[in-house]
Amino acid sequence: MQGPRSPEAHELDKLVQFLNKNLRQNAEWQINQEYPTALTHQNLHNMSIIEEDNQIVSHALIKPVITKTPHAIFRIGAIGSVVTDPNHRNKGLSTQNLQNCLAKATAQNCDLVILWTDQYDYYRKFGFELAGFEYTYVMNQPLPIENKDYKFIKGSQIDPNAMLKIYNQHTVNGVRTVDDIQKCLRIPNSNVFTIWNQQNQLMAYAVEGKGADLTNYIHEWGGNVQCLMDLFSYMIQTENKSYTIMTPIHSVNLRNKLRMVSPTEHQGYLGMIRIQDFDSIATKIKKAFKSEGFDQIVLEKKHGEIVFGVGTDLYTLASETDLVQIIFGPNSINQLDFMKPETQKVLSQLLPLPIWVWGWDSI
Ligand SMILES: CC(C)(COP(=O)(O)OP(=O)(O)OC[C@H]1O[C@@H](n2cnc3c(N)ncnc32)[C@H](O)[C@@H]1OP(=O)(O)O)[C@@H](O)C(=O)NCCC(=O)NCCS
What we know:
- The chain is an alpha+beta fold.
- The protein folds into 3 domains: 2-110, Aminopeptidase; 135-268, 3-Layer(aba) Sandwich (Aminopeptidase), CATH 3.40.630.30; 273-347, no CATH class.
- It has helices at residues 12-23, 31-34, 93-107, 120-124, 160-167, 178-185, 225-239, 252-261, 278-291, 320-327, 341-347, and strands at 2-5, 47-52, 55-68, 73-84, 112-115, 129-131, 134-139, 151-154, 173-174, 191-196, 202-210, 213-223, 243-247, 265-268, 271-275, 297-302, 305-310, 313-317.
- The strands form 3 sheets. Strands 1, 2, 3, 4, 5, 6, 9 and 15 form an 8-stranded mixed β-sheet that branches.
- α5 (160-167) packs across α6 (178-185) and α7 packs parallel to α8 (252-261).
- The longest helix has 15 residues, at 93-107.
- The two termini are 26 Å apart.
- The site of coenzyme A (COA) has 14 residues, from β4 and α3.
């Protein structure tokens, strides 16, 4: 076995073939078309491969994204395309690739690392825990369209600058360039719907599907809430199907509207999150509280345990996985019945912090 190591530029095609064979057997496209900002030459240094006899047998990659939130900017590494050839499983190869990716996250100052999987226990061994929120709503009936004079378009031939302008209005988003948007617009099986006003200004967008994933899920959206509701109705009407809309917890106005039409409201997790840099996270959280006038927050490590609280009212958390569910949810400060009410009151002013990764950035 050789590796783990980053592939060289001339090995990217070979790697894509390996991933296509193991993760996308029936797809009509190449897997790198699905992840155009992660499985690309610019991100070679963040891929990790292991070879045997010159053949790639295992891979994982990480893509760091700077994520803006109202109270802090986080550098989040997203891990994806973790796979080992079926003939080489259970030999610790993915473990080596994952550890290599985590080392890359540290080297690039990531505060957090996130991934999406259904193999929770496997990733728990690496310090990942289900955390954050993801709300989903089903919309199966169109509502009467309110912006009747607006134009609806299905198709990805749209100005990425217009889309970026609306994307940048999100309170939580990963930093993207026009070029990133342009690349995302070309992802196979990603249907883009837009609504434009009489002055031909983009008012809202919604994206369904992404390669092999998220079919019938609207995982990317942006813009004015009423325009979005009109857009969803237009989609249901013209495509003659229902959609599931994914939203962060902090999209309160849109969630209120969706709650009125959806038969269900489902609360899930954003993903499996690992605190990669405790000191950096602790500094950012204390700074966020300080800017709101709370300068007595304690969050530090002592003898391997996490000490957390306000002033002299301090509590010990056993692990970073407990902390991650408190910082980003779903655990509420108010459920921590060992904590004094006045401490709960201060901490719940900001916690859980809003965090989100938009669908096109998930890998
Ligand atoms: C999930 C997957 C990536 C794991 O790859 P792998 O190389 O077999 O992973 P590892 O060998 O590191 O770990 C697998 C198991 O072997 C065990 N193991 C680790 N090191 C070992 C070693 N040196 N010898 C024997 N077993 C070992 C691990 O503890 C783990 O056990 P668990 O399943 O009880 O947690 C692989 O099964 C796969 O490619 N699946 C299909 C694609 C997929 O589902 N990817 C995940 C997307 S998020």
